[in-house]
Write a structure and sequence with these properties.
The complex is a heterodimer of chains A (385) and B (344). Chain A has 385 residues and is mainly alpha-helical. In chain A, 71% of the residues lie in helices and 1% in strands. A two-stranded antiparallel sheet of chain A has the order 1-2. Chain A is globular and about 80 Å long. Chain B has 14 helices and 4 strands. Chain B has a two-stranded antiparallel sheet. A two-stranded antiparallel ribbon of chain B has the order 3-4. The chains are: A mainly alpha (385), B mainly alpha (344).
Chain lengths: 385, 344
């Protein structure tokens, strides 16, 4: 055990200093948003209420932490310095003089650096999985709500099927090391990841059908970019070698999308059923617009308020799900610095040492809190309109 | 009403059938069977012996045949040893029929747990009873507190009390069980030493000392959510004409809240509380693992991590049933409580 330690004030000061790129970026963004908030639409209106500012600042804080984690973190998140096993916060590393600001864990890794790097994993997987779930849920929910009928009944039944299974059981069944040997995750990924491509193709097709000079470039771009990402994610055969995902990460990704898409489906279906009775939909029908044009360019834009709020809440929920996966040691690598895994490792040793548990716990809580505050402020704003 | 309930029960049964089939498919994937064979035989068994173990215990029979046997619509036949031709039970620890009989879930036979070396019923039902106790105390804590918070916040919209309580409820909904559990354990067990950080001894007898932490950990997430729903519903009711009439008639504010507003404001929270059960089930799994309480969640984790097929199927059946039943109760109760909504 290292004997040399710095005091509490020095620890707090040290942590604040380490976050300097985040403070800088936050100051610039917040100041700019405050100055031009009248021109920024819905985002600018968030700065009118305390809750909104708090939500934006917390979310941006974690976003910048994820972006700048290699500058903020003083140590390698996986690196072990044997002398620092279970080191208390503020312990000075012998020889080099670096400080384990928030102490070391049972494997002598720096808790602070792990928390900072953990934000990167969480902020990549949670929002992108939510976006995919949103795409899947919207593409299926809009026709289900607009047409109704037998297909809608079947789709709703399937959605309820997934929602009836407790999430944790779903994860235990879908995210196991063994399942990566079967084609199942790849098949599911193949199904889910095709939805964004379909969505954007139909989106552009319905709008620009009569204007080929706009349509063909957009369609070509969608298919090219979509196909490229699709190849990289599903088959891991990106010709350029940029887009790739490890099998266990794909597995988690697919499971999280699978668990949250039915929720989106239900909401979009409900919204579509509500909005299709409005006058402007009837007007579009009288004009002779096709059903997909009405769904994507009349109904969807008018459903954006509740959908944005739901997406914010859902990213938070996905973060919680990801933490649950980490907590049960499913999918993520055991040495991964993500918050759920860190909480699992630390919570087993709470009797002996407390300090490794607290940073990931507060990180996860504050991020989800920020998203919830943001959603609350957005809801207030959309109610005002 | 009767046809509505009958149709809903039909949907529930169909859902359970589909879901158990999906779960049955997933637990019988090749890697999962391998895992089971490895855990059930001695260490370092060669692959061909693992295969023969699977064949001997009937895991290589046709998928639908085995699902039918589990369900109880096909006869469960004892397996004959291919070498001697003698009929023997698969597992010594639970009595399996020695002649072909219908013995599946429909007949009340949930099968054998390979992990706990006993019948599934012997393991699952005590665990459910233990979880029932936990749930009872959670609801006893959660429901009054959250309704109180929601009513206090929604009574005067926009007041200081309202804003403080609303932010507090948002904060609790941002705190999943594995986070609040750690925080509470650190505060109450490690620092203050008031409570026990493990509920393992609660199986013998529940005390305030060993049971408080799991209960508040599980309750706290739901409190924020139910409180927000109650607040929203209360705010809506307080703007109604009949509340204004009652106030103008000269009734006191407290009297109006208790006599006129509450009854109408509590319909929405009722459905919300009922729909909390799926989340509570996941929470139960986290909390029971964290505090080492031997209930349903703990059993589910053990069954899943050891690929204990029959036990896992039993667990899924129970949890799906609970989720769907609470949904049904919520719908029926909503129609019953709210005379404006009557199903055809």
């Amino acid at each position: 055990m290292p004997t040399e330690r710095i005091g509490a004030i020095a620890i707090i000061w040290g942590v604040l200093v380490q976050f300097w790129p985040v403070w800088l970026a936050l100051a610039i963004i917040v100041a700019a948003s405050m100055v031009w908030r009248r021109r920024l639409g819905l985002y600018g209106q968030l700065f009118d209420s305390g809750v909104g500012i708090a939500g934006v600042v917390i979310c941006l804080f974690w976003l910048f932490t994820a972006i700048f984690s290699h500058i903020i973190a003083p140590f390698d998140p996986l690196g072990q310095i044997v002398a620092m096993k279970d080191a208390l916060p503020g312990s000075v590393v012998p020889d080099t003089g670096g400080v384990y600001l928030l102490g070391g864990d049972k494997l002598a890794r720096d808790v602070f650096s792990r928390m900072v790097y953990g934000s990167r994993i969480v902020l990549i997987i949670a929002p992108s999985a939510t976006l995919f779930a949103l795409m899947v849920g919207t593409t299926l929910g809009l026709p289900a709500g607009y047409y109704g009928g037998r297909i809608a009944t079947i789709l709703s039944f399937l959605a309820n099927l997934v929602l009836a299974l407790p999430v944790i059981l779903l994860f235990y069944l879908l995210v196991t090391p063994g399942i990566m040997d079967t084609p199942l995750p790849y098949a599911m990924a193949g199904v889910f990841f095709i939805f964004p491509v379909i969505f954007f193709c139909v989106l552009f097709w319905t709008r620009f059908r009569s204007r080929p000079e706009r349509l063909y470039p957009l369609l070509a771009a969608t298919i090219l970019i979509g196909g490229w990402i699709y190849m990289g994610l599903v088959f891991d055969k990106d010709p350029l070698g940029i887009v790739s995902i490890r099998p266990n990460e794909l597995n988690i990704f697919v499971a999280v999308v699978f668990a949250s898409a039915p929720g989106v489906f239900r909401i979009v279906r409900g919204l579509a059923m509500d909005i299709k009775t409005r006058d402007y939909v009837a007007a579009a029908q009288t004009r002779g617009e096709g059903p997909w044009y009405i769904m994507l360019w009349e109904i969807l834009p008018n459903a954006r308020g509740p959908l944005i709020v739901d997406t914010c809440l859902r990213i938070g929920y996905t973060t919680i799900l990801l933490g649950t996966l980490g907590y049960f040691g499913l999918g993520l690598a055991p040495e991964s610095p993500d918050w759920g895994t860190a909480i699992k490792d630390a919570s087993r040793l709470l009797r002996a040492t407390v300090h490794p548990a607290l940073p990931p716990v507060f990180a996860l809580m504050s991020f989800v809190l920020g998203l919830n505050l943001l959603a609350d402020a957005l809801r207030e704003q959309s109610l005002k309109d | 009403m009767f046809t509505f309930i009958a149709r809903r029960i039909g949907t529930i049964l169909l859902t359970m059938l589909c879901l158990t089939m999906v779960v049955f498919f997933l637990v019988n994937l090749e890697p999962n069977l391998k895992k089971l064979a490895i855990s059930q035989t001695e260490m370092h068994t060669p692959p061909d012996q693992l295969e023969s173990w699977l064949v001997k215990n009937g895991y290589r029979q046709n998928f639908f045949l085995r699902y039918g046997q589990w369900l109880g619509v096909l006869q469960k036949a004892p397996l004959a040893d291919p070498a001697t031709g003698k009929v023997q039970p698969r597992f010594s620890f639970c009595k399996e029929p020695m002649e072909p009989t219908f013995s599946g879930v429909l007949q009340g036979d949930f099968g054998c747990s390979t992990k706990f070396k006993t019948t599934v019923s012997a393991k699952l039902f005590p665990a459910l009873a233990a979880t029932g106790t936990l749930m009872f105390w959670v609801l006893m804590v959660m429901v009054p507190i959250s309704l109180l918070i929601g009513i206090l916040a929604g009574m005067r919209e926009g007041s200081r009390t309202d804003r403080v309580l609303s932010v507090a409820s948002i904060a609790t909904t941002a705190t999943p069980e594995y986070v609040s559990g750690v925080i509470f354990t650190v505060i109450f067990a490690s620092w203050l030493g008031w409570l026990n950080g493990s509920a393992a001894s609660a199986s013998q007898g529940i005390t305030f000392y060993n049971f408080t932490l799991p209960v508040i950990t599980l309750a706290i997430y739901g409190i924020g959510y139910i409180a927000r729903m109650t607040r929203a519903s209360m705010v809506e009711v307080m703007t109604q004409q009949y509340i204004r009439t009652a106030r103008l008639k000269g009734l006191s504010f407290g009297g109006v809240v208790v006599k006129h507003a509450l009854r109408n404001a509590l319909i929405a929270p009722f459905t919300v509380i009922m729909l909390q059960f799926p989340w509570l089930l996941t929470g139960v799994v986290v909390v029971e693992t964290m505090f080492r309480y031997q209930g349903f969640g703990y059993t589910l984790v053990e069954a899943a991590s050891n690929n204990d097929i029959d036990l896992l199927l039993g667990c899924s059946l129970v949890s799906v049933f609970v989720v769907l039943l609470t949904q049904l109760i919520s719908d029926v109760g909503y129609a019953y409580l709210n005379p404006r909504i009557r199903v055809q």
